Amino acid sequence: LVNLSGVLSNLAVVYDHYNDEKNAEKYYLEAIEIMKELNDSRGLGYAYHNLGNFYKNRNKINKALRYLDKALKIRIFLKDENRINFTKVLLGSCYIYKNSYSYANRILKQCERYFRRENDYFGLAYTLIQIGNLFKKKGNKQGFEQILAELKNIYIQTNKNVKILNMINLLIR
Fold it and tell me: CA-based angle 157:162:167, to the nearest 5?
């Protein structure tokens, strides 16, 4: 069952990537049920996080928040600081969609401090992208340009990491 839950979760990610909403959701939920049976907390944390991201990307923000909250509780229980902060970044992104800018900013600034302290350039870039989205949504051109400049520096520091470049391109759109 452990392998099956992993396979189902990976299938969900693939279907999500190809925008097959029906199958992605189906496989996420099936994987979650198996993980619950197995008491696989770590797997559930990932699955809830991914399902929350799935719903956020489809503008189903309340559903996204529900699953991200579940992911966050599990990750706090597991004391997985890195994953806690990745889930918080996604929560911050959801609060931007809900126009709860001050709450989103507070969450994202906490994550930014964590990723800086850990020298986690990918996590930092991921967080800065959301802060950039917040600035863009609020019409803060100066803040947005500062974020872009910092992201450019991170891109250079990481030997032109393609994942970071892709995140920058999403922000610019």
Answer: 90
Q: Residues, the chain, total?
A: 173
Contact predicate 164/122, CB 8 Å: yes
Enumerate residues 6+ apart whose C-beta is below 8 A from 87.
45, 49, 52, 68, 71, 72, 75
User: Which tokens hold the place of 104?
Assistant: 């989103």
Q: How do the pLDDT tens digits run along the chain, 173 residues long?
A: 768 998 999 999 999 999 999 999 999 999 999 999 999 999 999 999 999 999 999 999 999 999 999 999 999 999 999 999 999 999 999 999 999 999 999 999 999 999 999 999 999 999 999 999 999 999 999 999 999 999 999 999 999 889 889 889 888 88
